[in-house]
Specification:
The protein is of the alpha/beta class. The protein is built from 15 helices and 14 strands. Helix 2 runs parallel beside helix 3, helix 3 crosses helix 4 and helix 6 packs across helix 8. The relative contact order is 0.13. It binds adenosine-5'-diphosphate (ADP) and magnesium ion (MG). Adenosine-5'-diphosphate binds next to helix 3.
Length: 447
């Protein structure tokens, strides 16, 4: 479908023209008309398929074309799970709003609370926020959502994983106008936590699913290497990083400490490298992401704070130095490459400690991976015996439908200091709920 066929306001068409886009992606073609018709929506499509515009464009259209429900209140709120994604969505929104007089602000942890308060006093029409910090402002009565027309959750499932369910509920309650419309987006939406909160927040939603998170992403080549131990993993990573042409790469690790350690090591191998994790100050996080997005260094070593949503076209390779504990995260991590029609390569290094996660990912994706071997670096490890595997998987439920039966855990570790809280967004403050851990191995220092 062409963008000119949706019946968009001219200012929107002008913005899309500036971006150089003519044809809508599949998710856009399906989701935009539903959203423009005022329907609530549960929408999923693969990583890099243009979900951001699929919700921002109808949001803009509604604001441009209809009268506000209240004179002062914010009209559109976009919630996202991490600060890095909040910044990215906000910059896209700013670009779109440049052709209009409508205003917007970004509300996220790690930034000055009072500055945000001042921004909120200007009654922005649009807010992009991470949930924890926004709830702090709600409690302080710095922001009112009574007239909110559109509530959007991007990476909706991740938000719930991070223990933001209560924050999302508080926002839902504060934004209770009967004409409010609600949109959920993600590449992976079919989990029971999502349906529970979707039932609470969405009214008779349309469902638009273009493929599933577990469908094979044709633009991403997956490669798997079995590894015996840490040194072996490092040797294989070095071989892979140095043995091919890499525009930019992201290496994902399980722990914050590993990001720094590995980044130093990769730097020594001759590639310019920086680490990103939730222990860094917000200023440092911004600096790392900005310079990576500008192509100023080659390799970003990160925890899962970079796994969702980040759209950097020159990421040609993704490496899972450790496999994620939640199978969906595999889809999101590897989806940092192969975006908007480009090709990408994803490498997963599977050691004995990763084996059960690896098997759970195969179950989730309904796909078997063949492993590759590098001459001279052949692994002795060939996987755990099926009996042992079955026993362990039975003890610890895999990341599939079996979650249904596991009790919800509540959010832990929320900071009491709401003015200097740099913990309430992203992965920083929360241990992932135990129910999603599918391995007894403790990686420590989990974000
Ligand atoms: P997702 O949220 O589905 O992972 P994004 O919204 O981040 O994907 O979009 C991925 C990339 O595709 C972005 O760089 C975006 O600018 C680009 N894009 C979005 N819509 C279109 C389109 N209709 N045509 C071409 N590129 C697009
Ligand atoms: Mg996205």
């Amino acid at each position: 479908m062409l963008f000119t066929e949706f019946g968009f306001d001219n200012r929107i068409l002008a913005s899309i023209g500036h971006m150089g886009f003519e044809e809508a992606t599949e998710i856009q073609s399906r989701a935009i008309p539903e959203a423009m018709a005022g329907r609530d929506l549960l929408a999923s499509s693969k990583t890099g398929s243009g979900k951001t515009l699929a919700y921002l464009l109808p949001a803009l259209h509604r604001v441009y074309k209809t009268r506000a429900l209240s004179k002062r209140d914010t009209r559109v709120l976009v919630l996202v799970p991490t600060r890095e994604l909040a910044k990215q969505v906000y910059s896209q929104l700013r670009l779109l709003l440049a052709t209009s007089h409508y205003t917007s602000t970004l509300i996220q942890g790690g930034e000055n609370f009072n500055d945000q308060h001042k921004q909120l006093q200007k009654n922005p029409h649009f807010i992009v926020a991470t949930p924890g910090r926004l709830v702090d402002h709600l409690k302080q009565r710095n922001v009112f959502l009574d007239g909110l027309e559109l509530l959007i959750l991007d990476e909706a499932d991740r938000m719930l994983d991070l223990g933001f369910a209560e924050a999302v509920r508080a926002i839902n309650t504060a934004a209770s106008h009967r004409l409010r419309q609600t949109l959920f987006f993600s590449a992976t939406l079919d989990n029971t936590d999502v349906s529970e909160i979707a039932n609470e927040l969405l009214k008779d939603p349309s469902r638009v699913a273009i493929g599933q998170g577990y469908d094979e992403h044709k633009d991403i080549d997956q490669h798997v290497y079995l590894c015996d131990h840490l040194d072996h993993k490092q040797d294989i990573l070095k071989h892979l990083l140095l043995g091919q042409t890499i525009k930019q790469a992201i290496v994902f690790t399980a722990t914050k400490n590993d990001t720094a350690r590995l980044a130093e090591m990769i730097e020594e191998w001759g590639l310019s490298t920086q680490a990103l994790n939730g222990n860094l100050s917000q200023a440092a996080r911004n600096k790392v992401m900005d310079s990576f997005a500008k192509g100023q260094f080659d390799v970003l070593v990160s925890t899962d704070i970079a796994s969702r949503g980040l759209d950097i076209a020159s990421v040609s390779h993704v490496f899972n130095f450790d496999l994620p504990k939640q199978a969906e995260e595999f889809v999101h991590r590897t989806g940092r490459t192969g975006r908007a029609g480009f090709k990408g390569d994803a490498y997963s290094l599977v050691g004995p400690k990763d084996w059960l996660n690896f098997k759970a990912i195969e179950v989730f994706l309904q796909r078997k991976f063949e492993s590759d071997v590098i001459e001279g670096m052949e692994p002795k490890f060939k996987g755990l015996a099926p009996a042992k595997e079955a026993h362990k998987l039975k003890k610890a439920p895999a990341a599939d439908k079996s979650r249904k039966t596991v009790k919800k855990t509540s959010r832990k570790g929320a900071s009491k200091d709401r003015f200097h809280d740099n913990k309430q967004d992203g992965f920083d403050a929360f241990k992932l709920p135990a129910k999603r851990f599918i391995t007894p191995v403790d990686h420590g220092d989990e974000e």
